[in-house]
Amino acid sequence: MSEFTLIEAAGGKPKVAGIAYSGGKMNLPGWKYQVVVDLAGMEIPETVPLLTNHENKTDARVGMISASVKNNTLEITGEIVSENDDAKNIVAQCKAGADWQLSIGADVKDCELVQGKREVNGQEVEGPFYHIKKSVLREVSIVAVGADAHTAMRVTAQFNIANPNLNEGEKNTMSEAQKETKAVTAAAEPAKAEPEKKVEAAAPTAPAAEPEKKPDTAKAEAVPAAITASAPDVTATAREAAVAAVKAERERVSAIQSICAGEFPEIEKEAISAGWTPEVVTKKVLETIRAERPAANVNISVKTAPEGGELRKTIEAAMCLRVGVSADQLEKTYGAQTVEAGMRDMDMPLRQLLIECMKMDGIPYSRGFDNETIRAAFSSVSLPGILSNVANKKLLQSYEAQPIIATKLCSTGDLNDFKENDRFRLTDVGDLLPIAPDGEIKDGGLIEESAKNQLDTYGKRFCLTRKMIINDDLSAFMKVPVAMGNRAARLIDQLFFSRLLRNPAQQDGKALFSTAHRNLLSGASSALSADSLKKAIQLFLDQVDADGQPISVEPRFLLVPTALKHLAIELTQGATLIMSGADNAVRPALNVLADENLRVVSSPYLGNSAYEGASQTGWYLFGDPKTVDTWEIGYLKGKRTPTVERGETDFNTLGLWFRVYFDLGVREQDHRGMVKSVGQ
C-alpha cells in the first residue's frame, strides 16, 4: 500500500512524504505472473523526479523527491516545485480532502521466475512470481488509483497560519494552544529573571514534563534575556548557543505539531516530551496509518524496455511481430530480450505508435487524435524509420519465401556502378608438360576472356494513408511490401528468362545458342525423349575450352517448360524404361539416364507467349554455376535484396510515402556449360 502526505508550508513549496512501495506482490500488464521488486537490489539515485501518472514529458514533472528503504518499504520525502495546472490541481484536491496514491517506475536489470517460496522484502512470498532482483528507480508518480481497486489513501494536509507579530523573513507556524501559551508567558515576563530559571534555560531540549500542557515556547525565547541580566559575565558565544538551542527547539515542536495535525495527539505528546526528531515522528505517523488499513499492492510501473535506441528497437520488434515476422528471425537482429519485450506491445494500435514516436523525438502532442497530430508524427524521425524497418523485414520475408529459378542456374557478382561492366576471367591454355631432366618447368599460358553485365534500378512506391491510421489498418499497409517482395523475387526470373529466350548475339557475332558454339540441338529428333536427352548430354560433354580441350563439366540441371515437367521426371528418375517397337527387339530394362543425376527444373516463363522466343517444346541443359560461368546475376555493391525507405512527402496526399527499389542486372557470361534443344 502506498501512502502520501502533503504538508504546505506558508510562503514555501508544499512538502510531500509517503510510502511508495510496501514490498508485496503486484499484478502488472504484460507479466504472466505477479511481480515482487526486491528493495535490497534497488539502485536509488540521490534525487528522483515526482511525476503525474508516469507521463514522460516536461509538464508531467511536478516535483523532486528523495527516496530510501526503511523497514522493507520504499519511503519518499520531497516537495512540489511546479506551478503548472497539474500541480495546482493536486494541492487543490488535497485541500478539499481528496486521497492520492504513489506509484513508482523502475528499470529492470535482473529478473527471475520463482516457482516455490522465497523471502523477499522481509516477507515469505508464495510462487509463482517474478522476482525483480536488481532494478533502478527512475521516477515516482502521483496517481489517483492504485493497483488494488479496493484500497484508497487519505491525504493529510496542514495549511499553517503565519504569525503577524514576526517580520516577513521570520514567520513561523503556531496552533491555537501555542498562541494561548505565548500570551500567558508574556504576561508573566517580569518573573523570568529569577535565578532558578537560569538552570532550566541552560538545557532547552528538555521541556516541562506536565503531560497535559503544550511546551512554553515563549518562555524559552525569553531565557537569553534573563541570563544576560543576572549573569553579565556570560560570554557572547554562550548567549548565541542558547539562542540557537531555543530556536531549534521551537522549530522541532512546530514541525511535530504540523506533522501530527491534531489527528495523532498521543504521538504528538510523546514526541514533544521525549525529544523525538521530525523524521522519527513522520515514521511513527506513517506506521500508524499503515496499521489502520488493510495491506494492498502498490501500483508500480516496471519498465523493462530502456529509453532511446533500445525503446525504438522494442517498438520495431513489436510491430514486426504484429505483421507476422517470426520471433526467431527477429532475434537474430534485435536479441531475445528485446523481442520478448516487444511481445508485450505487439497489440499497440497505429495511433499509439504515432504518439510513442512523438514522445521519443520530443514533439508535443495533444490528447486528441486529429490531422495535426498525424502531420506532426509524420514529421518525426522515429516513425518513418520504424515503419521502414518493419516494411523491410516483411518485404524480405516475402522475397525469401518466393522460389527463384534463376538463382539455381546463375552465379552472382557485385558491380560498383550502373555503367556496362566488363567481367574478366583468366583461362589457362595448354596441358601440363613433362619436366626436363634438368628440373626446368615450362611456362604455362593464360588468356583473358571477358563478358558484359549492367545494372538497372527497378522500383515502386506506396503510402501509409490517414485512413489506414485512423482505421488502425496496419495489415493493409503491409500488403504492399509483401506484394513487392514477391515482385522483386520474380523480377530476377523475368530478366533471366526474357534474355535467355531472346537468344542474343555475343561478342563474336553469333547467337548465344548456335551450331557454331556447339550448344544447339534442332530438328524433329530434338523433341524431349530418351534419345534426344542422350544426344544433348553428349553435345554438352563434347564442348571444349579456348585451347580445344574438353571443359570437363557435367550437366546438372534439366530446364523444361511446364508442359514437359512430368515427362522430364519420368525420363530422369524412373528406374526402368518400357520401350516398344515393330521389330520386337529385346531391349534392356535399365534407365541409364537416372545415373546422370539431373535435377529437373520447370518454369512457366519458357512457354509464356508474352516473352519473345517462348516455346512449349524447347528445353535446356545447364551445368552447376559453381563450376562454370554461364549466367551472372549482378547486384550493386553486394546488396542482394530490395530496399524500402521513406520517400518524399507529397503535399497532395495526407499520408507517409515509402518506396522500394532493387538494383539488378542479369547477363550471359559464357556459351559453354549449357545446351539448348529446340524440341520441334
How are the SSEs ordered, and which strands pair?
Blueprint: E1 3-8, E2 14-21, E3 34-37, E4 42-43, E5 48-52, E6 61-70, E7 73-80, H1 85-95, E8 101-114, E9 117-120, E10 123-126, E11 129-143, E12 157-159, H2 176-187, H3 195-201, H4 217-230, H5 236-260, H6 265-274, H7 278-291, E13 301-303, H8 309-322, H9 327-334, H10 336-343, H11 350-360, H12 371-378, H13 382-401, H14 406-409, E14 411-415, E15 421-429, E16 445-453, E17 456-465, H15 466-470, H16 474-502, E18 520-521, H17 530-541, E19 555-561, H18 565-573, E20 599-603, E21 619-623, E22 631-636, E23 643-646, E24 655-668, E25 674-677
Parallel strand pairs: 1-12, 3-11, 4-11, 5-11, 8-13, 14-22, 18-25, 19-20
Antiparallel strand pairs: 1-2, 2-7, 5-6, 6-7, 8-11, 9-10, 15-16, 17-24, 19-21, 21-25, 22-24, 23-24
Helix pairs in contact: 3-4, 4-5, 5-6, 5-7, 8-10, 8-13, 9-10, 11-12, 13-16
- Unreliable residue stretches: 147-234, 294-306
Approximate strand percentage = 15-25%
Beta strands, count: 25
Give the CATH level 1 class of one domain.
Answer: Alpha Beta
What's the CATH architecture name of one domain?
A: Alpha-Beta Complex
What would the CATH topology of one domain be?
phage-related protein like fold
What general outline do the C-alpha atoms trace? elongated
Q: Characterize the biggest β-sheet.
A: 11 strands, mixed
* Alpha-carbon Rg, integer: 44 Å
Number of helices: 18
Mean pLDDT: 77
Helical residues, percent? 25-40%
Q: Class by helix and strand content?
A: alpha/beta
